[in-house]
Amino acid sequence: MYEGESVVQLAKRMIEHLLKWGVTDAFTDKQIYTILEKAESTLKPLPAMLQVEHPITIVGDIHGQLDALIRYFDAVGYPPKVQFLFLGDYVDRGAKSFEVSLLLFCYKIRYPHLVHLLRGNHECMKMNRLYGFYEELTRKRGGRMWRQYQNVFNELPLCARVGQRILCMHGGISQNCNSWESFKALKKPNTPLTCDEGLQVDLMWADPTQDKCNTFAMNKQRAISVVFGQKGLDDFLKKLGLSLIVRAHEVSQEGFNFLFNKKCVTVFSAPYYCGNDTNCGAIMHVSDSYELSFTVLRPRMIATPENFEIVKLMENNYKGLMVASPDPNRGRHLQSADVPQPTPPSVQLVPPVTKPVEIKKQ
């Protein structure tokens, strides 16, 4: 650190450098440890469930795609002009998990009341040890820093309520929740064992399903947590007086996907996931009147003889997405030269009532 430089000033310098160059070579290990320690102390007092207000922009899985994250910022605005809620899975799969997570930690340090970070299943030690983050960080900085990262991940909240009507998490809902008291009593898991227990494992791992399951069943595909159906979701929303569940955790071809009469939406923000999915990425905007809109990011891909068929498939998908339609699932699609504003609101939530809640088209 420069003489007299505070941690916040160091975070500001790191943000500027990462946005311009996309690397951390200009910073020492000591400086990065300083940021990690400050991020941990900033997150530690926070409860397992956050209460945030709207308007807010919600971001799903990023998975080390620094370029995609910066494109979203270019499109909708940077903190502090925009309030952000990130739903987890910052690391693994992508090539710049270290840079993505460090950039978000720096933003959290600079704007703790405007940048909100939740924990995804890949912010658990057993996952990021196996799916790329450990190898990346060991190569770039060393294994000791990976262990320090786990201390920060352990302090991430697990879910967030937006206003009084939307509940956000990385995974999904749980049958282990009977009231808001369950969330107030929720503790942040800080060991691999506690990550796989109770309400917390479902908040990071659960999936919606439209198969035969109508309430809750074992999540056989992931071999952990549960899947939930229409009735399970309806009962959960009614019990807590909510209108909508916002979650991430699953690839969506269009970047987002509504389920169960638009009472649950999946937001996935990593386009061209793992280099072999032809999916878009998306982020969701919640206005001050609970109107929902989406900014959708098309993956960048240059056609070559080797990937010609994939590029052709992607372009055919995009033609279908760009067809004029009243369906609110159709978002604004960004291309590399675009610097647009968010889409006009296309879905509006109705207030919670005792009968089943619907999301009406605007």
From TrEMBL:
It is an enzyme of class 3 (hydrolase). Residues 324-362 are annotated as: Disordered. Signal peptide: none annotated. GO terms for cellular component: cytoplasm; nucleus. Keywords: Hydrolase. GO terms for molecular function: protein serine/threonine phosphatase activity. Its EC number is 3.1.3.16. InterPro entries: Calcineurin-like_PHP, Metallo-depent_PP-like, PP1_catalytic_subunit, Ser/Thr-sp_prot-phosphatase. The keyword Transferase does not apply. It catalyses: O-phospho-L-threonyl-[protein] + H2O = L-threonyl-[protein] + phosphate. Residues 118-123 form the Serine/threonine specific protein phosphatases domain. Belongs to the PPP phosphatase family. This is Serine/threonine-protein phosphatase. It comes from Caenorhabditis elegans. The lineage of its organism: Eukaryota, Metazoa, Ecdysozoa, Nematoda, Chromadorea.
